[in-house]
């Protein structure tokens, strides 16, 4: 068995709220292999988004370790974490998080500002990925002029344009109707089939079952799935 | 992120909030305009004075006066401090002194046709007339030589002689007369008024036969009469020396308004021919010459000709301070216009600092506007900052992004402020000139040349730098706040 791309051990993320300590994550272990379609399922408040933010290097844990290709994220300084996010990570959010003043092409281009890509290359790469996702005729449209599904596809294009190693997807269909949800799920499966590692966070077990090869379930910051211990036996389709 | 990307994003962001950005930029522009207008006034005034100094050649002119009298025992030093021909030659030979000439004036009568005018005259060598101090002529030219029988007049004298145009007097002849006091005329006057000498001697002898008081009274009366006659003959019965001279030129009145040379200027040798009576034209000189015996036994000319003032024309490439130090070391007193200009410069430096301070206060107020705009921008763009961080933006990228926006506000505001300030100075110049013209204190010619404001390149550069620096400083807090935004919180906000 190959070494995992992401190795999580005893991960804790505790928040202090007045005198109380809120344990958003409390001792989570998991391994994500290269090329996995890995789903984290749980109800609202289970800590799944916190787990995703920690693995994406947006947040820092209060205990445990996250290793990417064997390198602990906690050993990285702020600039190295930024470079990790800029070059290895793509993120898609439930609320799209597109910049309203910029059109689709500009939103996608924005992801390449922090990589070593020239402006002409940047424009070409953004255009190509948008066309691949069926948005060739929406390049100059601002988010307000796009449907929810189209906005999420622009967000997906923004995450994919820099050819990341890992795609972190947080409730991608939460704001979409059934048809658009299906489109997004199909696209994610398609991306995974090309070798891209996808980590999906969702409360929707059906979607997780439809596309994930492996799945873990969280409740109150702990794993509750059968394969919780040892982590190598995570279950999924 | 490259600088080009940063500027592009900043322009885009400012353009998204046109009204707010425009108002903030306007605040900076008004502050910079005030800064520019106030400083350019100080610079303009300084430049006007500097130009006048340069045009008159005052930067290269030095006046030398006799030094303080030293103690009686130190006679050598005392000799050195007299401004005589020997000293003049010594000063002329100093490196950097292009020309040294005495400035002595004396009373003459200028007559043309039936009109005679009594005025002051002075001798000036041809070389001196070619210096910037005198080189502006309304008509005519400098003397053909230092011994030419020519004269140069000031325009006011031209009018007094009954001529309207300076040109019309050029080439005409005028008679210059000078009354020269001398010991001869004084002695003659004593002798003429003495009466019968035999009778006078008789009267003295008669007095001897009377009381000693009568003798004293008789002798006092006799000597008193003789002294009165001597002085009357010396001062009132001067020898009149006249010469007919050709009017060679008329100086420019505007140029020499403040310099005030004597109305009649003569070539030095011509003046010497006329002014032969020596210096004893005033009571002080007379007493001095009686005291030192030079009245009756004139000393050699090298020590007798003492000048009250000598003017130096300096080489502009030699520092004036060096020459001044050397002349001072010779024991003479000096007056240098460049030194005076230094004091003027110091005043204007303080003036400019004061004006700049007022401009800086205006800019400080404008910077509060920048802080407000940028803080609002940070609050509104929290989510965008979160997205940028999720895409790989480092804290430094975010900080620079907001600093670039502040700097952009500064650059655009400064450039607009320079244009507004320039327009304000144009309007103020126009208004100022109208007021000055109505006051009648200044001629139209001078008014045309007058520049109340000056906008040199360094001031434009300084305004832009100042505007950008203050804007960047104003952007420090908002940019730090933006850089510190927690991406997780920002992305969670709805």
Overall description:
- The complex is a heterodimer of chains A (237) and B (494).
- Chain A is of the alpha/beta class and 237 residues long.
- Chain A has helices at 48-55, 78-87, 104-110, 119-132, 148-160, 178-193, 205-211, and strands at residues 6-17, 20-32, 37-42, 63-68, 71-72, 89-92, 166-170, 197-202, 214-219, 222-223.
- Chain A has a domain at 36-60 and 78-215: 3-Layer(aba) Sandwich (Rossmann fold).
- In chain A, strand 1 and strand 2 (20-32) form a beta hairpin.
- The radius of gyration of chain A is 18 Å and the shape is globular.
- Residues 228-237 of chain A have low confidence and may be disordered.
- Chain B folds into two domains: 3-56 and 352-492, no CATH class; 103-305, no CATH class.
- Chain B is built from 20 helices and eleven strands.
- A six-stranded mixed barrel of chain B has the order 3-4-9-6-8-7.
- In chain B, strand 3 and strand 4 form a beta hairpin.
- The radius of gyration of chain B is 38 Å and the shape is elongated.
- At the A-B interface, helix 2 of A face helix 1, helix 16, helix 17 and helix 20 of B.
